[in-house]
Amino acid sequence: MKRKVLGKHTIEKRHVIFGVAACVALLAAAVPLVLYGPDLFMFFADGERVRAWVDAQGAFAPLAMVALIVVQIVAAVLPGEPLELGAGYIFGFWEGTALCMAAGLVGTFIVVTLVRTLGMKAVELFFSREKIESMKWLQDSARFELLMFVCFLIPGTPKDVMTYVAGLTRCPVWRIALITTVGRIPSIVSSTMAAGFAASGDWVASAVVVALTAAFAAAGVGLYAAIARRERKKEQAAHMDVVARSSTQEASKPEKRLAA
Predict the structure, then answer these.
(1) Residue-wise pLDDT tens digits, 210-260
(2) Which of 79, 189, 207, 220 is found 20 to 30 A from 159 (Cα to Cα)?
(3) Contact 190, 212 (CB under 8 A)
């Protein structure tokens, strides 16, 4: 019995630690956003400034790159593409990709823990309730994990919003982190590869990668919209079916009473 109790207390302590860490990360992302909103947005959107700042960190440059990407994922409203390009330009394709994936994993853990600690309050710091409600088709789907993985693989989809929505589900944190990390690979690879080619002076290869990425992103937005429409229709049909069954059951009650 003592072991079970100790195990329970250990789990509770871990939850508290993760919750506190997530809240600290939220403050680290939200406070600068409130104080320096426009300037911070312009910084994250400017690949040259990002690269210069990361380069200035010297031996801590890889850690600085990871920290920036984690802040971007937690803050969500900040642009992430310049960071992935910066990672590829500074560190090259392989190291840049590894850093982006590591940051994505950490950022996802923080976001999901944050949402499960603070609930909708955490989500509404960055997204309107209407925005979250518009993604109920993903949150409530019986095929949530598969749909989320497919949507993450598609370029141009709102990945940061989906990460917050995932936190509202009962899906285990480690599974969400795995889905989002693997799902980010196409987007990360295309960015770091294009930047890596540019850093080595191969502008033709870089332009080809950028053009292909833009084409896939445009197609991806359309595919994402089609998936969302189909799932919403399924959700509405399921809701209408439940209402119809409920009405049938209510209508049959008086008949059963008369028969009795």
Answers:
(1) 788 777 777 777 777 777 777 777 766 665 666 666 666 665 555 555 555
(2) 207
(3) yes
**pLDDT score for 99:** 93
Please, are residues 161 and 76 in contact by the beta-carbon 8 Å criterion?
Answer: yes
Half-sphere exposure of 217 (CA within 13 A, CB side): 14
86 contacts 57 by C-beta, under 8 angstroms = no
Q: How big is the chain, counted in residues?
A: 260
Residue 51: both structure tokens together: 């690269």
Q: Containing H/E element for 73?
A: helix 61-75
Residue 61, C-beta contacts closer than 8 angstroms, at least 6 positions apart: 54, 55, 90, 91
Name the pTM for this structure: 0.70
Q: Report d(CA 29, CA 69) in Å as an integer.
A: 11
CA pair distance 108, 78, nearest whole angstrom: 15
Helix (H, G, I), strand (E, B) or coil at 171: coil
**Residues 81/188, Cβ–Cβ less than 8 Å:** no
Give the contacts of 204 (CB within 8 A, at least 6 positions apart).
none
Nearest to 212 by CA among 197, 228, 227: 197
Tell me how far apart the alpha carbons of residues 25 and 12 are, in angstroms, rounded to a whole number.
20
